[in-house]
Design brief:
The complex is a heterodimer of chains A (236) and B (294).
Chain A: E1 3-14, E2 17-28, E3 32-36, H1 43-50, E4 60-63, E5 66-67, H2 73-79, E6 81-84, H3 96-103, H4 109-122, H5 124-127, H6 139-151, E7 157-161, H7 169-184, E8 188-193, H8 196-202, E9 205-210, E10 213-219, H9 220-225, H10 227-233
Parallel strand pairs in A: 3-8, 3-9, 6-7, 7-8
Antiparallel strand pairs in A: 1-2, 1-4, 4-5, 9-10
Chain B: H1 2-31, H2 38-55, H3 60-83, H4 91-113, E1 118-119, E2 130-132, E3 137-139, H5 141-163, H6 165-175, H7 177-182, H8 187-212, E4 215-216, H9 222-235, H10 240-261, H11 266-280
Antiparallel strand pairs in B: 1-4, 2-3
Helix pairs in contact in B: 1-5, 1-8, 1-9, 1-10, 2-3, 2-4, 2-8, 2-9, 3-8, 5-6, 5-8, 6-8, 9-10, 9-11, 10-11
The chains are: A alpha/beta (236), B mainly alpha (294).
Amino acid sequence: MGTVLTVKNINVYYGAIHAIKGISFDVDRGEIVTLIGANGAGKSTTLHTVSGLLRSKTGDIEFLGESIAHTAAHKIVAKGISHVPEGRRIFQGLTVEENLQMGAFITKKDRIEHNLEYVYEQFPRLKERTRQIAGTLSGGEQQMLAMGRALMSDPELLMLDEPSMGLAPILVDQIFEIIQNLNKAGTTILLVEQNAQMALSVAHRAYVIETGKISLSGTGEELAKSDEVRKAYLGG
Amino acid sequence: MKLLTNLISGLSLGSVYAIIALGYTMVYGISKMLNFAHGDVIMIGGYMSFVMSVYLGMNAWLALLIAMFVCTCLGILIERLAYRPLRGTGSLAVLITAIGVSYFLQNVALLIWGANPKMFTSLFEGVQPIRLAGGSLTVTAESLFTIAANIIVMIVLTLFVNKTKAGKAMRAVSEDNGAAQLMGINVNQSISLTFAIGSGLAAVAGVLMCSAYPVLTPTTGAMPGIKAFTAAVFGGIGSIPGAMIGGLILGIIEIFARAYVSTELADAIVFACLIIVLLVKPTGLLGKKISEKV
């Protein structure tokens, strides 16, 4: 299998606030790994640190055996990490197609066509709306666009931040099905979710983050059964 | 006929404002800062062209190209040295720095070229104005060329931001700097490119303006800079077509106010119109409503 991502003892601050307090975890090739935890626990901050938008004061982040802790965010994408940020953050004023083109910003020309087909295959809804301004899409379609955009760069590791946020239950099911399909097709996935039940049901392994620290870890199944997790995150 | 003559002068002046306003609006769009030194880049463009054509006897068009090149480099340099280190520190620090850069450029010009006005030679030295309708309508070559230049700049720029990869990247960075980085877009490069384009256009505006009003002093850029900034806000700051419409309307209002109301009050009327537009539509004519992130 081999390890794709290793995060070693990272500490992240927002000014004086110590948001991440020595988090370490790893993701193996082919896995779905999820980070669950309450609002403000530091899940999104962790993803932002991996993708280079935030910096850790200590420790190291290794991707495919190479340290990326000091690599600029726009270069980390080229190494094979795609980050779908919280709130989707698609380019609202650009068309669906232009958003996907931005996702392929660093992709080699001969791969773009292939990746575009793959994205349309996964998200047929997007294909019907290529010329539509992205800001006018529904919430679910925007989430699909954000994920499609991230797939345009051929990522080895796809990081998804709260893909279920604000979506109707039927759409949540659909999105999670797509996540599993992508994983089966070979993409390693690091998933951050508040919807712990959903996340644990698809994850191979999971980490629970509490106020900037990892409090528990195990397989998705183990954690779903654990009393602590059930009380705190699964409503008993 | 007087009306038509005034309209053409207004369009010509407005075209200069529009070209300058583009620099303000594009830079604001991408880095959310007001580059108050932009007006002084116009002045430097004027002086560069003056030095090349008068001191070195160069062809006026070649001088324009060199002025564009110098201003492009100057714009990149200003962003790199003065603004980039302050990115993320809050808009007030950047605003004050921009004002500082503005005074710095004016004083450098004062040091090199002195306070005495220089007589600028027009790009169209010796070209006769075109007389139409039995001589009652006179159109100068400067006016015609300025209006044409504005149209060309708008078309090229619109194609650039909508069709090219670098242009789309600029729009992406304008919308969401962080998400753009996650796409692999080098945000610094995009911002540099924006400053380069804006400053290159400032040189064009400077030369066109000095061709029509041929007096050059170190503060030449200040007033047109403020007016063009007004035009950008008028049209909706951040919007490229807005800059064009804002510039043209402002130019026409200014010339008409001068011709039919009062020369002294012209500027006051221009700014009064800005205030009225902002009261009615705070985002400017074509300004986008900033969508809140959920």
